[in-house]
Amino acid sequence: MDEGVDPTHMCQSLVQKVAQSKQLLAVADPGILELFENWLEELEDETMDYMEKHPEAESSTVADDLGLSQSGADFLLAKLRRGGQL
Question: Rounded to 5 degrees, what are φ and ψ at 29?
């Protein structure tokens, strides 16, 4: 089974590219950030729904069942817990 989606890596990559290249900002479609934020919200909603049904699930189970990488599941669970959503 492949690693799945890794939002941590995607976030880090996006931040680095924006910070390192003003040219990227000049040519990037302004809707890309909005699309990324919408995608992340969908992942968060899916994770919250899953955890509501499986409150004792380990992050490895969340990763497997939602098709995320282990670090992606860890990131989402930590983010949701920090925000008081879990």
Answer: -70, 125
Helices (H), the chain: 7-20, 22-27, 31-53, 59-66, 70-82
- The values of phi and psi at residue 68, to 5°, are -105, 160
Rounded CA separation 30/16 (Å): 17
pLDDT tens by residue, 38-77: 888 999 999 999 999 999 999 999 999 999 999 999 999 9
Cα(75)–Cα(64) distance, rounded to whole angstroms? 14
- The pTM of the full predicted model, rounded to 2 decimals, is 0.65
β-pair partners for 5: 68
Query: What are the boundaries of each domain within the chain?
Result: 7-82
Nearest to 47 by CA among 71, 63, 34: 63
- pLDDT tens digits along 4-39: 777 777 777 766 766 666 555 665 667 777 788 888
